[in-house]
Amino acid sequence: MGGRKKQSLLNGALVLVIATAFVEVIGLLYKIPLTELIGTVGRGYTGTAYNIYIPIYNISMAGLPVAISKLVAQNIAQGRFNDVKKIFKVAFRLFFVTGLIGTVVLLLLAYPYVKSMDAMESLPSIIMIAPAVFVCCVMATYRGYYSGLHNQTPSAVSQMFEVVGKLVFGLSLAYVVQQHGMKCFAAGQPVYGTVCATSEEAVMALAPYAAAASIFGVTMGAVTSLLFLMIRHKIVGDKITKEECASSPEAVSGKKIAKMLMAIAIPVVVSTLVMNITNLIDSWSIQFRLKAAIDSDVSVITNMYSEALALAEKMNNTQLKSYLYGAYEIALDFRNLVPTITVALGTSAIPVLSEAWTQKNKLMVRSSVESVLRVAMLISLPIGLGMAILAKEILHIVYGASSSLTISASVMAMYGCFTFVMAAAQPLINMLQAIGRADIPMKSVSVAAFVKVAVNFILVGIPELNIRGAVIGTFCFYLITVSVNLNALIRETGVRISYKSVFFKPLFCAALCGVGAWAFSGLAGNFLPDFSVNSRIDTSTFAACIGILIAVVVYVLALLFTRTLVREDIKMLPGGEKICKILEKYDLIG
What we know:
Layout: H1 9-61, H2 64-77, H3 81-116, H4 123-129, H5 131-148, H6 153-186, H7 199-235, H8 242-247, H9 254-304, H10 306-311, H11 317-335, H12 337-358, H13 362-389, H14 391-399, H15 405-417, H16 419-434, H17 439-460, H18 468-493, H19 499-527, H20 539-561, H21 567-571, H22 576-585
Helix pairs in contact: 1-3, 1-4, 1-5, 1-6, 1-7, 1-9, 1-11, 1-12, 2-3, 2-5, 2-9, 2-12, 3-5, 3-9, 4-7, 5-7, 6-7, 9-11, 9-17, 11-15, 12-13, 12-16, 13-15, 13-16, 13-19, 14-15, 16-18, 17-18, 19-20
């Protein structure tokens, strides 16, 4: 083992979850002033840029981090330390080239993409985010390597550097661009080349450039994160000792390692390619079909959202499309919250499950699979129900009395109802990859993607459904993916999952939590006097905060008294043995 300390599955996941929680909190803090700076229309521009960036970013990075982590873990289990070091060198070269290609592809696709959607205002944002593909690819080499060494801490800390860099650079640059544009308007000068008669026109004219400035923060955050990892690797290294290398077999050739990496990576890349091309088509089709719905019967949509549109600036049909899509994007900030956290479970499972599978340790395989699924449910079920019940209040707390609040809240509530399905998707994919069956997610994602695109295309074009149709399409996608992959994982590993422990007990506790949130927020709202401190804090939002706090207490008590927490999971946490003894003393652990 040298000087290395291997993190257990849940220990490593906990490190990543804490980092992810920090990232999400900072991300929300970033989006609150960002939305105020660039508005809902500006969020629509950044959303369009993200929707082409994310697929190319994911395709560029897909496979190799998983392949590095899996291959490193396998070689560590076999004591082949020279191979471990060589894997990093080969992977670094592969990622460097892949990142360059990804950035070039994104720049080449930018103009035809925005032209096809009649969204030219998003072009500056895409150009500003393009270099992040290259930077993130190089960064992923380090993250995949340390994951394979059962050390998630460097990745976790680098994520924190990344989001802080995005916050600082993104908001600063957006503010400078916004202030400069308004100064030009006040001086009677064109605002970034557009002559404006009113301040509302000036805000619309500067929005594409303020959005581009804010999204450049993503690139700068990635640069900050990469610098941390490079410096840390130079100073600390991987803690594989000279003695370990001397006693291990000679490393295989770089060409053979590259082939092994690609053999693992290609099925992952294909499934990611399918998923992200689907998301790209989805982004285009949602906006295209939104336009069709508006052109078909704009009165249905304006009547449906009359409360929100009465508070918004007067806008034409093109701006209405961006406004609705921007409101949808705001809801996605919360839709992705729980799956982003549970991704940490899948990431941490890859090296642990790969090592157990290599050593044919059936007990560890079963324990790992059940732990990942159980913890995913324990996290996702209460948060999802809370999102569904208190969507409007949560958005009010975060974004204030935004005109699009009611639109975003309806979308967020729908997503909250099936958050638990989305939370299980990526961990299941990662566990199949860890046991060498990455081909199964590739097939399931392909089928689900076709269904998603078809459902979205049909439903979003119906004026009465519009953006809500996209929620139904997403649900179909995740339901198919999770059902197929879960059945395959059970079949391949021979693991018999205790659904009572993994799903039904967490669901019962989450239901009590949801009822607590609804009941206590309602009671507090009835008994509290009417007041308003600012655009975010008033009687309803304060009552919601009380309801959330009470719900957390109810959930913890429900977990303890139903003995939903499992001894094997607790032991994998830092200080787990001591926690187990305390809980066992009072018979509060399963």
